[in-house]
Amino acid sequence: MVKKIIKNLTTTFRVNKSYKQWPGLIKAYKKWLPVNDSTPIITLQEGGTPLLELKSINEIIGKNVKVYAKYDGLNPTGSFKDRGMTMAISKAKEEGCEAVICASTGNTSAAAAAYAKKGHMRSYVLIPDGYVAQGKLAQALVYGAEVLAIKGNFDKALEIVQALSEKYPITLVNSVNPYRLEGQKTAAFEIIDYLGEAPDWLCIPMGNAGNISAYWMGFNQYFKAGLSKKLPKMMGFQAEGSAPLVIGKTVKNPDTIATAIRIGNPVNKEKANIVKEESKGKFTSVTDNEIINAYKLLGNKEGIFCEPASASSVAGLIKLKNEIPNNSVIVCVLTGNGLKDPDCAIKNNDAVFKSGIDPDLNKVAENMGF
Ligand code: F0G
Whose CA is nearest to atom 19 of ligand 1? Predict the structure, then answer.
């Protein structure tokens, strides 16, 4: 009798066998990627991230529009960079490379450091001193990168690492590395695999503009293979103080609360402009206030904690509300996890926080309003 109950319990609680572990994006999308049987796959099982319907945003927009978030902050190091890094590091390993380098506003450095270690390589990261969110810096340090903080912005750091990688035997893993975009394009595949069709709009933050170019490549590959019948309009968003792609010229001193996209001279600008033209999309800027409003809304209406740069996709969508056609399906890319930037979270929320309360039941109850 007892045995039978235990057997029933274990059968009931054992995971449904049809849910196998996600294998990581290289294995999942191998035939779409420039890998072969001898490519060592360096993976932390990135990709396969959720597409969540944002009902509160649907309500703001109305018009029977369905808005989803591609929550890429749930990747292993907390950002979409893992998609590109599994490819870049696997290919670097295949080519016999022993060290990698990148410039970063934080997320690339976290991903490069983690994947380099997984592949037994050294990693060097150049960051703008004082402008990298705490969580990202902590990651690079814990993953054992050699961190070099320069007295200059991201654009300057990128210039330096590009030159270093030409001069020394070290592989550059910024988004000028074509394998990065190959990995990142898989997010577009996942969206179509889930929705059964491409969305009408893809809303995405832009910094160096690698990700928007990668998504466009992914959408086009599925479209050409007959796996979707349409292509989305690519809607790119930048922060107002850091919007070179919106104003059409380099910004010397970019400035925004969204430090991830604090970039004045995007290295993929030509590619991004082609994406805009081909997709009949649009680039728009959003203010830091609009970013923070969307950031809070995602947190306290949807239970989604993303970093400020990521919230610019939702802020932008809300800004363009009147231009959205009825019955559209829209995907906003949430590129990074909110835990990356705890300082921003603590300064920008509408929560109730009372401190210094006596450890006494009655006092606590009183503070709860009872
Ligand atoms: N969102 C987040 C959270 C990012 O970290 C970045 C870029 C972007 C959006 C923009 O993507 O550059 O492909 O247009 N972060 C880079 C970094 C620059 O160093 O981590 P992009």
Answer: 104
